[in-house]
């Protein structure tokens, strides 16, 4: 039986160590055809996230993929302070070449609209690894184009557990809660992969070493990125791989447990900003609630070491 045709995707991202791992995984997998990478401010400022997107593509020899700069700030509030977790360059100080190709001239939402309108309806999926600013802006400015998206798979939110920037808030939704509210309530096909799942996909130093032994460039770079997580966390035995779970879900949805939940996003100004509430009056969203962590890590390793 012939292999299935690769799925056409756009990666919306704020690289970010775990974003970088997810991007390299997508580049390694024959299941995806990456049409472009749109960037957003989040983990660090927009100039750095855009540069990091180009640097990752330069490392992989994929300068054919355009990088498109997007939202430098949330839709309607000041942006968050950059996270120290990812280092000054946003990717843990890991060395990468400079971008070969400059960013596209159009802003991300306009580029997405043009691209989606040029493709068959439903043909393009968006993998969202950062704040949802660009996708919300697309929906606000050009809803007809946005409705041509096949599916959005987004890392974000927390449902049953404690958040990572507030009692019930996860960083990506907290960074631009108005954008999250637009996307969640839009009715666009959305799969949300929250902290409830991503915290159970954890990379150890031993995992990184196993990747390095394979001797493949993409696998070795992911090993470097995983190791960078431990530079300032010397007593931790493992680190969660949040954003790669988007690609892993797309590759093997059977390894995740989905629930249909009706969700509302908190857009207040308190520490509850970005919090998700399950509410019968909310918008129905598919939410990943469970995962086979070891099987997902094995899939990650096999994909990277086969490239």
State the distance separating the first and last CA atoms: 21 Å
**CATH homologous superfamily grouping:** Ribonucleoside hydrolase-like
Instruction: Specify the CATH architecture.
Output: Alpha-Beta Complex
State mean pLDDT (0 to 100 scale).
Answer: 93
Strand content is 15-25%
Q: What ranges have pLDDT less than 50 throughout 5 or more consecutive residues?
A: none
SSE string: EHEHEHEHHEHHEHEHHEHEEEH
| SSE-based structural type | alpha/beta
Strand order of the largest sheet: 3-2-1-4-5-6-11-9-10
**Which outline best applies?**
globular
The CATH topology: Inosine-uridine Nucleoside N-ribohydrolase, Chain A
Task: Specify the biggest β-sheet.
Answer: 9 strands, mixed
Fraction of residues in helix: 25-40%
Please count the helical segments: 12
Protein name: Nucleoside hydrolase
Keywords: Glycosidase, Hydrolase
GO molecular function: hydrolase activity
InterPro entries: Inosine/uridine_hydrolase_dom, IUNH, Ribo_hydro-like
Summarize the structure.
The chain has 307 residues and is α/β, with parallel strands linked by helices. It has helices at residues 17-28, 46-59, 108-117, 133-141, 143-146, 171-175, 177-185, 195-198, 205-213, 217-229, 244-251, 293-306; strands at residues 7-13, 32-39, 67-69, 124-128, 149-155, 190-193, 202-204, 238-240, 256-265, 276-278, 283-291.
